[in-house]
Write a structure and sequence with these properties.
three-stranded antiparallel beta sheet, 2 helices
């Protein structure tokens, strides 16, 4: 059975879920999540798939939450510091890196401008995994629907 809530409609703006905390808001774009699990391994008390809501930003210091969110290779998780926070906005890696995985995916980190098409238009990104096989229903992002569905993921320890 397919989860119709995360299937993209061509040209549609991405659906974001927001999880507000005292010093940080974490956003999640379900259709970009490739289940690398960096969040769950990094802060299981904040990112707990058994709880509702599954993201609870107040369970850790906002700076630590931001650090773990930046580990998400697909960019499905992002954050915004509270206006009164000392935590800076996320900036892209310098220099920008593009790494082609053995299965064809392009893992990108940096100051990116991604042409998503349709209503989504141009998107400023700091992290993205782009489709390398052309089969993704969430172009230009990989959704593991084609030949690039296999292989290990970009682990934080290999960056």
């Amino acid at each position: 059975m397919t989860d119709r809530t995360t299937e993209p409609v061509p040209g549609e703006k991405p659906k974001l879920k927001e999880y507000d905390g005292e010093g940080i808001t974490v956003t999640f774009e379900p259709r970009r999540c490739l289940h690398a699990a960096e969040c769950v391994r990094g802060l299981p008390g904040v990112f707990d798939l058994e709880q509702r809501p599954w993201v609870r930003p107040d369970q850790a210091d906002p700076a630590l939450v931001a650090e773990v969110v930046r580990r998400c290779p697909s960019g499905a998780l992002q954050y915004r510091p509270a206006e009164d926070s000392t935590e800076p906005d996320e900036t892209g890696d310098v220099p920008t890196t593009v790494r082609r995985m053995p299965d064809g995916r392009l893992v990108m980190r940096g100051d990116l401008l991604v042409q998503a098409g349709g209503e989504a238009g141009e998107r400023h990104e700091t992290r993205a995994v782009l489709c390398g096989c052309g089969s993704s229903g969430n172009q230009p992002y990989c959704d593991h629907s084609g030949p690039c569905a296999g292989g290990d993921f970009d682990r934080a320890e290999t960056r």
